[in-house]
C-alpha cells in the first residue's frame, strides 16, 4: 500500500492554479512528498466534479485526506462521509438555498477565463450533495472571520465538535493559509 496522499479540491470558478493549491504542492515538493499531492481540474458541473474525484479515489487504495476550499470543501464533506475519509475544510460552502440560487447564471473560470453556464439543474445537483450529518472526528475546519463571500459562522455551527481553527480577519481566500500548512500536513498524516 502506498503512503498517505492528499487530494485538493478547488473552489467554484477556480482551478489547480489557485494559490493555495500551488503553495501546498510546493510545500510537499520541498519535503520530498510531491508524489503524494493530487489536485484534479474540477468541472463546474457538480456531478462531473464528484465523478472526477471518485475516479481518483478508486485509482489507488492509499490512505487519502481531502483538502477542500470553498465549494471544494462542500464536496470534500460529502465524499468524506460517503468514503470514510478525513477532510480539511477551508472556508467551506455550507448548504444555503440562497447561496446555491445565487450561482445560477453565466460564470468565468478565474484562471482560464473559460465561460460556462450554471443552470437550475446544476443547482439541484448541489442540493443533492448536502451532507446532513457529519462525523466530527474526521474534520479540520479552517475559517477566517473576514470571509466576504460566506458567513464563517455557518461553517463553525455546521462543523460543531470538529477540530476548528477560527482566524480573525482575512477573506474568502483564507489569507493566513501559509501559516497553517504544517498543521494541514500533520492532519493529513504526511510528515515533512
TrEMBL record:
Q: Which SUPFAM superfamilies does UniProt cross-reference here?
A: alpha/beta-Hydrolases
User: What protein name applies here?
Assistant: Esterase YqiA
What's the source species for this entry?
Candidatus Accumulibacter appositus
Amino acid at each position: 500500500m502506498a503512503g498517505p496522499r492528499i487530494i485538493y479540491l478547488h473552489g467554484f470558478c477556480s482551478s489547480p492554479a489557485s494559490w493555495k493549491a500551488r503553495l501546498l504542492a510546493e510545500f510537499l515538493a520541498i519535503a520530498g512528498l510531491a508524489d503524494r499531492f493530487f489536485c484534479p481540474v474540477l468541472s463546474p458541473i457538480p456531478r462531473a466534479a464528484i465523478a472526477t474525484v471518485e475516479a481518483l479515489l478508486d485509482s489507488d487504495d492509499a490512505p487519502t485526506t481531502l483538502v477542500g476550499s470553498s465549494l471544494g470543501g462542500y464536496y470534500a464533506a460529502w465524499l468524506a462521509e460517503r468514503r470514510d475519509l478525513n477532510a480539511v475544510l477551508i472556508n467551506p460552502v455550507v448548504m444555503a438555498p440562497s447561496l446555491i440560487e445565487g450561482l445560477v447564471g453565466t460564470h468565468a473560470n478565474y484562471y482560464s477565463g473559460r465561460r460556462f453556464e450554471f443552470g437550475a439543474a446544476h443547482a439541484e445537483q448541489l442540493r443533492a450533495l448536502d451532507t446532513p450529518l457529519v462525523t466530527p472526528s474526521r474534520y479540520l475546519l479552517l475559517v477566517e472571520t473576514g470571509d466576504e463571500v460566506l458567513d464563517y459562522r455557518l461553517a463553525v455551527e455546521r462543523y460543531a465538535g470538529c477540530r476548528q481553527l477560527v482566524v480573525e480577519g482575512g477573506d474568502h481566500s483564507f489569507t493566513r493559509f501559509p501559516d497553517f500548512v504544517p498543521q494541514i500536513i500533520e492532519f493529513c498524516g504526511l510528515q515533512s
